[in-house]
Task: inverse folding
């Protein structure tokens, strides 16, 4: 298994990805000590505004959901880098050193293009050495007795969940892949079946650098978007520009950097590129820190979450979105009204009062 940092064009596993501020999940080493990993590491819960429980679609808006805050949201967002990173840290703590004894595929669609037989051949008798991440993909790495280094790639899709339990309780209704381990079992479930669990590394090939990759500098970022007529929001969502940024945190980063999401990339000045580069890292680090505060609760069932974990009720943890899903509310910075528009089929939230 190789570790290290992957720059643009390098699809290798990116294991040293996400320093978190305020001392909650620090270090630039690939993995924390066992005690650090086990204490306070939880399944993520970053969509607390409306995705803690799946609300029915608003009959007045075929594209929307009614959220916990009473606002009309849109269809559930796909888990983004912070949610996947928190899940990675949790799974690394419980899977590292475990040996795979059996593989059961209950939803063959989710293991394409690898297929059930090939997946079983790759996984049975493999010992998990580490769980890495590349963008929004989880990487399950470990040697096989055959002498090969295996890597299985997991993607949560929109409703995927991955967890390890004692193997005694009944499997969830939408279990897709079940790995019997020498201690417990690993379960990947996905009601909507948009997730994947396979060995096709080509999906990593066109990805850009990670937000914390030393190769991703403000200068490199500026050069990458210079000359582009596409909106800066669309460029942030382009995984070849920077890996892992999704719709929620693109809106948040643009608000923090005081840049309108509709601005063409070529119109950004060097100082604006620098502000946005800083903001991308800042909002992702904050989201990871918040996710790490939520204690895992594997006995509560799915509860509508993307992952197994507490709903956050009474936990003192609250997602601090400044603009996302806050259309019609006052901007916390200037008091202007937060607006919503659609770019490339995705909602953008912004404030015209302070974003230029």
Result:
């Amino acid at each position: 298994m190789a570790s290290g940092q992957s720059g643009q064009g390098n699809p290798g596993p990116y294991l040293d990805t996400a320093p978190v501020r305020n001392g909650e999940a620090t270090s630039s080493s690939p993995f924390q000590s066992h005690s650090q990993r086990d204490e306070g590491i939880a399944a993520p819960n970053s969509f607390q505004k409306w995705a803690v429980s799946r609300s029915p679609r608003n009959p007045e808006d075929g594209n929307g959901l009614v959220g916990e805050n009473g606002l009309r949201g849109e269809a559930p967002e796909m888990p983004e880098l912070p949610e996947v990173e928190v899940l990675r840290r949790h799974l690394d703590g419980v899977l590292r050193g475990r040996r795979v004894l059996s593989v059961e595929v209950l939803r063959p669609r989710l293991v394409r293009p690898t297929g059930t037989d090939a997946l079983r051949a790759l996984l049975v008798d493999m010992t998990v050495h580490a769980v890495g991440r590349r963008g929004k993909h989880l990487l399950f790495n470990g040697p096989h007795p055959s002498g090969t280094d295996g890597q299985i790639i997991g993607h949560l899709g929109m409703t995927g969940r991955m967890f390890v339990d004692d193997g005694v309780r009944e499997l969830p209704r939408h279990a897709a892949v079940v790995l019997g381990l020498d201690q417990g079992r690993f379960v990947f479930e996905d009601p909507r079946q948009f997730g994947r669990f396979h060995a096709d590394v080509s999906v990593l090939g066109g990805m850009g650098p990670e937000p914390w990759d030393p190769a991703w500098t403000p200068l490199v970022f500026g050069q990458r978007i210079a000359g582009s007529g596409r909106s800066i929001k669309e460029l942030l969502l382009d995984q070849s520009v920077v890996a892992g940024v999704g719709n929620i945190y693109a809106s948040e980063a643009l608000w923090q950097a005081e840049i309108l999401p509709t601005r063409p990339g070529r119109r950004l000045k060097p100082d604006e590129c620098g502000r946005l580069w800083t903001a991308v890292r800042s909002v992702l680090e904050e989201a990871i820190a918040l996710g790490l505060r939520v204690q895992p609760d594997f006995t509560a069932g799915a509860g509508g979450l993307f992952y197994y974990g507490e709903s956050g009720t009474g936990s003192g943890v609250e997602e601090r979105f400044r603009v996302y899903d806050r259309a019609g509310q006052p901007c916390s910075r200037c008091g202007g009204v937060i607006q919503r528009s659609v770019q490339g089929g995705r909602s953008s939230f912004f404030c015209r009062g302070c974003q230029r």
In short: Residues 270-292 form the longest helix (23 residues). The chain has a mean pLDDT of 78. Helices lie at 34-38, 81-95, 116-123, 218-225, 232-237, 247-256, 270-292.
